[in-house]
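Annex B, item 7. Sequence and structure tokens for protein A, then protein B.
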Amino acid sequence: MDTVVAAPRVLLGRAFTGPASVRIRGGRVVEVIQGEPDKLAGVEILDEGFLTPGLVDVQVNGAVGVDFAEVDAAGMRAVAEALPRTGVTRFLPTLITAPLPVVVRQARAVLAASAALPDGVGARPLGVHLEGPFLSPKRPGVHDPALMVEPGPAQVDELLSDDVLRRALRMVTLAPEQPGGLDAVRRLVEAGVLVAVGHSDATGEQTRAAADAGARMVTHLFNAQRPLGHREPGVPGVALVDDRFTLGLIADLAHVGPDVCRLVFNAAGSRVALVTDAVAAAGMPPGRYLLGGAEVLLTEEGVPRSPQGTIAGSALTLDRAVRNIVSVGVDPAAALASATLVPAEVIGESGLGRLAPGAVADLVWWGPDLVPRKVWVDGRVVFDAESDLDRADADNHGYAAAGQ
């Protein structure tokens, strides 16, 4: 039996239309119908707000106390159940720098925990994103420079020769200026992996060469990379003008300030992918948490930091990122496209991040305040604020009120 969800406004691609209805069958969108809905049995009519595709986060290190570097089936389920409260329906578990054998072991554990998720439970993982160890010690951020290695043929082989990892490796962040970097970009791209420039001291010329080799994303624009200069553009300067790059942006307004966030959207809004870079501290009260096995401190400030004071990922939720970007003057449709369509496209998921015939039926009903009220994954309701918020508050995870 079909399910029909109707809303006053519906996000189609990069613009709102409405009123409109979305018809769902077998976990997929069958059609989008323009106009006032038929008030028939089986039609769910949303009386206000708007309907969008589910949010897609391609950089998540953990959440609700769970660090993906040490995840098990129970931990993965906890994250999967928490994320829909923030509008996220698909996410890419991310692992930071560690020795290569450890990275492979951690990735296999992430994939095993993902495979153990029961059908119909929460948001769905999309594979794995390796943010390291092929990074520049000159731009480490919170990563341990002593664990970084050059991406030589043997090191890339170590990743691609593991059959389980190779099939699920969706994204690798690396520094292309490191010895062997451009060859590594080519090999990974040939293997079907999205390559992102990040934790990099690359010049503008080297960043452009990475795009020539097949790199298509920049990880957390402006953070842990050679900065924008008026003569030497560095990584962000080239990324902002080279249409081949999708720009990952942590819009907590701490990693990148409000004016610069607005500047990024003015310059390249159609290529921005909002990400959280969330760590285990996300959705949790102030305290000590882990990132890649290392301790980080979340204070009342709301920004996780290493013991030395370096920003260590974020406690951001993706719905709050959308609201933050709207607050700096970006059109809501553009902000939402940056959390749905753009990240889905950059990782090659044409069936996600859009409401169109054949697409996966991941939907979010938002109130006028841009807070998620109801979320569907594969056509099934996985979060309903009316029934779930009280239980989430009782659990004390905080995601229930993540963006309040």
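Protein B:
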Amino acid sequence: MTTAELLADDPIWLILIKVVGIFAFLVVMTLFMINWERKVVARMQQRPGPNRVGPNGWLQSLADGLKLAFKEDIRPVLADKWVFFLAPVISCIPAFVAFSVIPIGGEVSIFGERTALQLVDLPVGVLVVLACSSVGVYGIVLSGWASGSPYPLLGALRSAAQVISYEIAMGLSIVGVVMFSHSMSTSDIVKAQGNLWFVVLLFPSFAIYVISMVGETNRAPFDLPEAESELVGGFHTEYSSLKFALFFLAEYVNMVTVSALASTLFLGGYQTPFGLGSLWSGFDNGWFGLVWFVAKTLFFLFVFIWLRGTLPRMRYDQFMRLGWKVLVPISLVWIVAVALVRALNNSGEFSQQQFLIILGVVLGVLVLLSLLLPDRKVEEDPNAVPITGGGFPVPPLDLEVPKAPTRRTPVVANLPKEPVAVTASKEASDGDV
């Protein structure tokens, strides 16, 4: 029995349990991630992190959430009332919906009912995750437009361009996985990695996906839509109270979703790692699969934190150049290579696994060389627009600063050098005083 057939027999009470469980899991992961991120970055920077609220400070994020709930809800005068209210909701809902197609475990028994640890198994499950991540950006765009302020609008436009650019690279990185698994169903992709994980066979696709998922979620060093240095906080500058909390929740839930999808596509999902299933058959049970899945997801979430504590924010033109001129061309070349290898393997001339591993290593070396080698010097165009030290063009300086006028010395009347005593005349002294 396939996973889709097994899920089709779920009673309504079991579906409701799964919905509540997924919602609770994502909310708890958000609270955990906020505190974990602050603690890990604090350890990297050799300073104390949250250590006051709760045991060792682990209730700090819960206290912050309660504080946001009781803060005053402020709406700017120029804001569009209904769009300003709906924007954070539009950002938050797709983040939760995308997780519904992720298989977090194998077949288990819940209150005597056989089912799989997955809410729904769709034939196009991978496309559902990509579609939800694309819809979520509408909330960001609408929040920037509805705020009635230029800085949130600039952050919203940046986010729209960023998501479009890296959504293409992310979609292309999944093509190789679909070609090998012959399905876009997430459960079928996990089962196709029973012998060898796709991170080994399709390492270039894995690297492109990891870079794209960081850019897709607006996380450092790609957090340009909310760059404080020039946007005062980005698209949610004018938001407060629970509306700001919804944006915060959507960001961290999206991080969990793309990390879970990376585990599903490239690390075998809920399958036992490192061949531990051969040591004890109990490791392959359904509930143990949930443990492996959460561990793999936490690994990718740690990568998010590691990048934030290590790399500085990129400049926007460098960020867009990486997406359009590096990731997209490499993805297209890799897809052609994978198709060629599969065609040669069907003819019986090559072993596709060995050939793909060698090809991935060669392609990775070429990418590193292209990033590390210095840029070729280009002859300067005398008619080119001058560039400032920050890399942004400035208008030509046609006007010259006029010279300061010469200072004129003040003209002083010829006064006597010594004071002259003035005496009143006899006529004045005899007059009326």
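Comment on protein B: The beta strands are 107-110, 113-116.
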